[in-house]
Amino acid sequence: MSSSLEFEAKAVDKALEKASKALNIPIEKLQYKVISYGSSGIFGLVGVKKAKISVTVPDHVKLKTSPPPPVHPEPESPTRRADEEIAADAGDDNLEAVNEPTVNRVAALVEEAFGTESDAVDLDSDAIIAGKDALRRIIDFITTGADISIETKADRIMFNIEGGNAGVLIGKRGQTLEAIQYLVEKIVNRQSDKRIRIQVDVEGYLNDRRENLRNLARKLSEKAKSTGKPATIGQMNAHDRRIIHLTLKNDQGVRTQSIGDGFYRKLVIFPKKRRKKQAL
Questions:
Q1: How far apart are the first and last CA of the chain?
Q2: Which contiguous run of DSSP H or E holds residue 235?
Q3: Which of 16, 29, 62, 103 allows an S-S link to 179, with CB 3.0 to 4.6 Å?
Q4: Could you give the strand order of the β-sheet that contains 146-153, starting from the edge strand earlier in sequence?
Q5: Is residue 11 within 8 Å of residue 39, measured between CB atoms?
Q6: CA neighbours within 13 Å on the CB side: how many for 18?
Q7: What are residue 45's phi and psi, to 5 degrees?
Q8: 172: helix, coil or strand?
Q9: With b meaning 16 or more CB within 10 Å and e meaning fewer, what string describes 207-239?
Q10: What pTM, to 2 d.p., does this model score?
């Protein structure tokens, strides 16, 4: 009785070539069915899906290659503290933190229809033009009536969106906006020789969120100090965690620590133990 094997590649013809080589059968003699034709995704960056075929293997055929052993990821290093917490959350603000499922949801929508000081970026550069064009194409699949303005600060390009359905563009906890920023930064930096940081905002949402996070940090700091118990803020990306760390960095009564794994880790505010005064 014949068995079947599945082969994946960027396109069906490449998957057929792989199957032909593995089974030592000419492509024209392969018996197969296409499971998925694959997808190039959004701008070739995310949402990419490989083509997959199922090939009938004759009983007399022996495979020339065997599948590679599974790769087990190495465990992450222990969580860093104090200033290391800020450094850990200070790097690729939107790149490290973006929730991949959220990025894929933004890509699906399209398919269906802060750093070192340097000179300001030239507004006429190809990178900025590419970034604005990419952002326009993305938001046009999500909403209508949105306008884009551009501002540069040192090595950071700021794209500000006004109009349209702001709530949909921002998404829950800003996840959709974060995914859009991730995509635009990827595209811009494909056109640039140096790393250019990108910020995408919708009607001042980022400034409002920054101020709300600072107020939340101060409120939970006071709570932790008054109760003597840790206060936890769940599901925060690296950019938001850094805001909390910086807000409470000089607060002598508490310390902050990021805990957990994955894109959205928790941040815990620990009250510091008070030292007892020594008797004279």
A1: 92
A2: strand 231-236
A3: 103
A4: 146-153, 156-163, 197-202
A5: no
A6: 18
A7: -105, -55
A8: helix
A9: eebeeebeebbeebbeebbeeeebbebeebbbb
A10: 0.55
DSSP code at position 249: T
pLDDT of residue 1: 57
DSSP-assigned beta bridge partners for residue 148: 161
d(CA 276, CA 171): 48
With beta carbons less than 8 A apart as the criterion, state whether 109 and 149 touch: no
Contact 272, 258 (CB under 8 A): no
Calpha distance 258→156 (Å, rounded): 26
Predicted local confidence at residue 202, as pLDDT: 95
Tens of pLDDT, residues 35-62? 987 765 554 444 557 889 999 988 777 6
Residue 230 structure tokens: 């840790």
CATH superfamily of 208-271: R3H-like domain (3.30.1370.50)
CATH architecture of 114-203: 2-Layer Sandwich (3.30)
As annotated, the residues of the chain forming the CATH 3.30.1370.50 domain(s) are: 208-271
What's the rounded Cα separation, in Å, for the pair 128 and 191? 9
Instruction: Give the CA angle between residues 38, 189, 87 to the nearest 5°.
Output: 110
| Residues in the chain where the model's pLDDT stays below 50 | 43-46, 66-68, 71-82, 90-98, 112-119, 124, 280
